[in-house]
Predict the structure.
Amino acid sequence: MQLSVRYSTTYNYDAPALRLVQLLRVTPASFVGQTVLDWRIDVDSDVRLREHRDGYGNIVHMLYMDRPPGGLEVRVSGRVLTDNHAGLVDGLPFDLPPPVFLRPTPLTGIGGSLTTLIHALEHHRGGVRALLHHLNERIFLRMKFDAEATAVDTSADAAFEAGHGVCQDFTHIFIAVCRGLGIPARYVSGHLFRRDGATRQPATHAWAEAFDPELGWIAFDPTHGICTDDAYIRVACGLDYRDAAPFSGTVAGGGSQSLSVDVEVDEVRSQRQQQQQGLEGQRQSQES
């Protein structure tokens, strides 16, 4: 599947700022099942961008700007060719040893509610892979998606106890339980093409990757209860949200600030596919 991404982030300040420094993790890499055809970052002001890779192998851009105006817009766009590998993640250009991703973090700490779940899963039969699929489905059925329920600093345990959250919370819960069971797991940020036609989205997406000794890294999306497929674009990874967030940084001065995000992920259809879709629409119209 060929997917196109148009992603804009707009900052507004209520007073003049002195200096802006932002870290951008918005550029995907190519690996088995994901080929980046083209990708670009555009900023509506005069800034300095420096590219490098961080310790997790993510492509990172540092954005520097002196005396930014009252607002700043960063636009990201590109096309990616994806294949369905049933969640298997292979051929990454850079990776760390799996035990690195056993390290706990404040966002993936284990409290009372997750301890109970971990104990319930300790004797699950069928091996690591079966356990991971069971955990993915269990979180999907247990948690309710609620965009207003949590904040970026909500821990996995707090979200699980509340029973609702966003994709970030679903992912942190999955990771925390995996690590509690001795299974390396990491946070992944990226984009999701929604097949229900909702191409415009208010945020990027997040899911997890867990390490199976037999198959390697497998990507699970507990928000939807599935493994990733060709509708997903992998951008960055880390121990938790803070390591893979699309934007993070500081601003000197500027007073309070507001942030707005607009994401559009769509499928790029060939001319033949468009013609077939048009003919199918005409046939259905005639039948009705």
Q: What stands out?
A: The chain has six helices and 17 strands. The mean pLDDT is 90. The radius of gyration is 20 Å.
